[in-house]
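Weekly sync, protein design subgroup
Attendees: M.S., D.O., the rotation student, P.L. (late)

Item 1: inverse folding check
M.S. brought a backbone from last month's batch and wanted to see whether the design step gives back something sensible before we order anything. D.O. pointed out we never logged the input encoding, so this time it goes straight into the notes. Structure tokens as presented (153 positions):
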């Protein structure tokens, strides 16, 4: 298996491979492939969609599987932000990202959704919650290794 490594200049002028984190929390010493990036984006959109659905049903009393206009707008906004993310290869979760690409109002809306839906996800999709916990631990280890979410130049 041939591994491609992108060289990135650091402050001291030394070149080092750019580490990336895929949808399964696996660290690679190369940028993500387009397929890996798409899989990671799809996974994030699925998670956000599920959480917005829980929130909309519980708070806005929408029919199960349906979104009100406000929540549909938030999901479209979040999906567009995820697809346009410049640091998808190295980011873990949006909440820990150093680049805040959400508009302040949308950022507060998504925080409310996460606060409400997060604890309820255990009842709706315990497998995804367990996967999120594992990914969170892998992400913390990834960040402790010195990999931070910064915009590429």
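Designed sequence read out in the meeting:
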């Amino acid at each position: 298996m041939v591994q491609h490594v992108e060289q990135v200049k650091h402050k001291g002028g030394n070149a080092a491979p750019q580490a990336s984190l895929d949808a399964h929390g696996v660290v690679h010493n190369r940028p993500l492939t387009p397929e890996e990036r798409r899989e990671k984006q799809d996974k994030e959109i699925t998670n956000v969609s599920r959480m917005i659905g829980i929130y909309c049903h519980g708070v806005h009393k929408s029919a199960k599987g349906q979104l009100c206009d406000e929540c549909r707008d938030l999901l479209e906004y979040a999906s567009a932000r995820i697809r346009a993310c410049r640091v998808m290869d190295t980011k873990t979760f949006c909440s820990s990202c150093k680049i805040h690409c959400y508009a302040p109002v949308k950022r507060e809306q998504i925080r409310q959704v996460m606060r409400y839906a997060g604890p309820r996800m255990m009842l709706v999709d315990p497998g995804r919650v367990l996967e999120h916990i594992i990914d969170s631990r892998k992400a913390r280890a990834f960040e402790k290794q010195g990999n931070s979410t910064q915009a590429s130049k």
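Discussion: Confidence is low (pLDDT under 50) at residues 1-17, 149-153. The CA atoms of residues 50 and 125 lie 9 Å apart.
Action: P.L. to compare against the previous round before Friday.
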